[in-house]
Amino acid sequence: MKVAIVGKGGSGKTTVAAIVARTLAREGRSVVALDCDTNPNLGISLGIGPERTLELASIRQSLDEEGGAEHAGTIDELLARFGEDAPDGVRLAVVTKIEKPNPG
Amino acid sequence: MRIAFVGKGGAGKSVIAATTARLIGRQGHPVLALDMDTMPGLALSLGIEVGPDGLPEELAEQREGEGWVMRTEVSPAELVERHAADGPDGVRLLTLGKLPGHVKPGSTTAFRHAMGFAADGWSVVGDLAAGTRQAFFGWAGFARVVVLVAEPTAKSILSARRLALLRPSMPEAAFVVVASQARAPADGPRVAAAIGLPLAGVVPYDAGVREAERSGRAPLDAVPDSPAMVAIGDLLATLEHAA
């Protein structure tokens, strides 16, 4: 099953996504939670805390900085390298490219 | 005064930006509100019933080697005069989050073009896109005050911390925090301390504002004396001082 959750900021996307992911995991499914927001906060709602959530985003960013996209491996390799274990066995990864701020 | 409101989606940027713009308008100053969001909603918070559709397609053109740009023969003054929507208290509203043609929202040339008139004594209040990707495009060197709007929640605070990291790119602007939808007296200081910037104001959680938002009315019209509206009035005084 592949579920995409969309909507206006603050409407509850992240909270709903996290609860859906953990509920599916508790039912015994393998779950990958992908944070596709340019402001990736899904880690907080999944329960890994703000500091680890912040760190995950910078790991994602370093992938771009080292030009890793050219050497990107399989999805499993990427999840192993850049993902994070969240409660109930959910595997979390930040997918969004965090663009460097361009103040112009 | 040129103020940029930034923060996580749902933190309250639009209500605070719209109310601030209208209160500046009531002081008798010309004021332009800019909705920088790709999904614009500032018109509702201002009390403009039908949101502007954005700028007309003919304001954009495709140029060899440059791609899509805003036509420069339309002067900034004309842009505002002809294309900004009229709001209450004399506020004019331009929707710049979605630009005509295929001009990229992040195009700083488009932003500067639109901003060219701002030197002429106008106050400018920007409601910036949520998130950090396009956070301050064009606003560096333009904004005098950047207001990080954050609710007292972990997610909202984390978003504001990310935005605060962009501060070195805007050395000329004062960065301040507004704690919004605060529910306890300690919320303001707690939010500001977590973000690491000075607290400029606390806008309390306000059921009247929520109800106004539900019915699609501008909070300043629906509940003008509510605690949140009073707090935004106090905030404006503080921001005028900061700028």
Give the overall average pLDDT of chain A: 84
Share in helix of chain B:
25-40%
Weakly predicted, low-confidence segments of chain B: none
The CATH topology of chain B turns out to be Rossmann fold
Backbone CA Rg of chain B = 17 Å
Radius of gyration of chain A: 14 Å
Q: How is the topology of this model organized?
A:
The complex is a heterodimer of chains A (104) and B (243).
Chain A: H1 13-26, E1 32-35, H2 42-46, H3 50-65, H4 75-82, E2 84-85, E3 91-94
Parallel strand pairs in A: 1-3
Antiparallel strand pairs in A: 2-3
Chain B: E1 2-7, H1 13-26, E2 31-35, H2 42-46, E3 60-63, E4 67-70, H3 76-83, E5 85-86, E6 92-95, H4 108-115, E7 123-127, E8 145-150, H5 154-164, E9 174-182, H6 187-195, E10 199-204, H7 207-215, H8 219-222, H9 227-242
Parallel strand pairs in B: 1-7, 1-8, 2-6, 2-7, 8-9, 9-10
Antiparallel strand pairs in B: 3-4, 5-6
Helix pairs in contact in B: 1-9
